[in-house]
Amino acid sequence: MIGTVVNALAIIAGSSIGMIFRKSLPKKYETIYFQAVGLFTLLLGIQMALNMSSPLLVLFSLILGGFTGAKIKLDEKIDRLGDVIKAKIKNENERFTEGLTTAFLLFCMGSMTIVGAIEEGFGKTSDLLLTKSVLDFFSAMMLAAGLGIGVLFSFVPLLLFQGGITLFVSVIGKDIPPEIISDVTAVGGIILMGLSFSLLQIKQLKIVNLLPSLVFICLVLVLFQYLVFD
User: Fold this and answer.
1) Comparing C-alpha atoms, which of 139, 87, 93 is closest to residue 112?
2) Domain of 49, in residue numbers
3) Are 95 and 150 contacting, i.e. CB atoms less than 8 angstroms apart?
4) DSSP string for 60-99
5) pLDDT tens digits for the chain (230 residues)?
């Protein structure tokens, strides 16, 4: 998990630098920055989503995941977790939870996260995650300048999510079909598209409730392959 650990450290370092400049960042530049990030996130999400190999299964997984997230009130649980962390560190930033969730989604829903974590799990290379660490360093710096210390704490869910993929793959010990990688990436891309609407202030969507879709797409694809090929 060298790549994931370095990635987490890069986010901590970038966020720390960003918070130093937070008070001196004029509002107009903050707005321009989030417009640029929102448009880039939308383009990245579309690119990732277009690579799906099973559109109906992706849609089915998104619906199941969304229903599950809404049922367990995942968004409210994340908000409460953010409030608990704020209280522990005695921080009054109103955008703490927004910074935490926005950074986590940006850092963990991309194709580099999924493919890089799988490659590291197979013991092949950490190069992709190390490259991602450099990109996340600068992203964390800019995000923290706009949203504050919540961005720094996104390293915790990144360790759990990205590191979890690596450990899971290392335990499985066999190649994962390309279709699964492409469709999991597509689900992540659609989640990023939803996040872009929030960043661009088009509409505030409860994107966090869609996170269970990443689990459902894996389960659905494995079940589908088992029924079709066996």
Assistant:
1) 139
2) 2-229
3) yes
4) HHHHHHHHHHHHTTHHHHHHHHHHHHHHHHT---TTHHHH
5) 788 999 999 999 999 998 888 777 677 777 787 888 889 888 888 988 888 888 899 999 999 999 999 998 888 888 888 888 887 877 777 778 888 888 888 888 877 888 888 888 877 778 889 988 988 898 898 888 888 888 998 998 899 888 888 888 888 756 677 777 888 888 888 988 988 888 888 888 888 888 899 889 888 887 876 676 55
Buried b (16+ CB within 10 A) or exposed e, 89-125: eeeebeebbbbbbbbbbbbbbbbbbbbbbbbbbbeee
Number of domains observed in the structure of the chain: 1
CA distance 17 to 7: 16
DSSP H stretches of helix in 148-212 = 155-172, 178-199
Helix axes 127-147, 96-108, angle to 10 degrees: 160
Q: What pTM value is reported for the model?
A: 0.80
Q: H or E segment at 228?
A: helix 213-229
